Amino acid sequence: MDKHNEHLENLSEIRSLMERSSRFISLSGLSGVVAGIFAIMGSMAAYWYLGKDSAYDVARPYYEYAETRSGLPNIDFYIFFFTDAILVLTASLLAGSILTIRASRKKGHATWGPTAKRLLINILIPLVTGGLFCLVLLYHGLIGMVAPATLVFYGLALINASKYTLDDIRYLGICEIALGLISSVYIGYGLIFWTIGFGLLHIIYGLVMYNKYEK
Amino acid sequence: MKNYIEDLNKAFESRIRLGIMSILMVNSWVDFGTMKEMLDITDGNLASHITALEKMQYVEVKKQFVGKKPNTSYGITKQGKKAFGEHLDALENLLKKRG
Lengths: 215, 99
What we know:
The complex is a heterodimer.
Chain A: H1 2-22, H2 29-51, H3 75-107, H4 114-139, H5 146-161, H6 169-185, H7 190-214
Helix pairs in contact in A: 2-3, 2-7, 4-5, 5-6, 5-7, 6-7
Chain B: H1 15-26, E1 30-31, H2 32-39, H3 43-55, E2 59-66, E3 69-76, H4 78-98
Antiparallel strand pairs in B: 1-3, 2-3
């Protein structure tokens, strides 16, 4: 019977080594919460920006303000939204990295290794593709499609990443894609969908992950 | 009744060798440092087990330079994959038989 237990132990060790050596599992759930909060702050800033225009009308889709009344591109609009988006992205990545490094130190895992590298590359491929695609949309003046496109490509990036980290991220990816597709139909509500996708969903997902793996 | 114990491969009896093979099954090339960290063992210990597996042609070695530092990576061979797969099947069968 001793042998039996030894075999069982061997098998479970094999499974755990295969898992640990091929996936990056120290991604902190709290980084999702923080990214969500930053995203909500970012979209609040966007509403503040739109609202300070005296001619602002809630019924008008936000992306129409990208043109001045004389039909010229509103440079101020582009600069504001671009800066806003970059700030949210940088702050989220920075906070996410710090929290993840802390979480993996606590568990005694190495943070930067082949698994982290593989995860990053596989997130970046769909994400960079999406970023370039959004630039093309802007180039064609399809500003309303940028928010849905960021959601869809982000969802695809997460699904691609799920093979290299905890499986759960797949469900977040599916939700982001669904939200992105719906918002590509109702483009006037792009900012609201964007706030739900990058804000609310991140916070919910982060809390679920935190409870499941880090508590 | 078939005696499944005979199907167990003696080469994989040590836990460390089981570990090395498990890691190589799911990663195409793994360097010495990563392997050592993952298994949490000493240099000498890892080297001797890898050499043994290499002799049986279950593991192949790739030496290259990263900058000025020599870097050794390990991969699994076709025979290694086959032998380890059979070993895992045998383990599973043993467990199934005993319930």
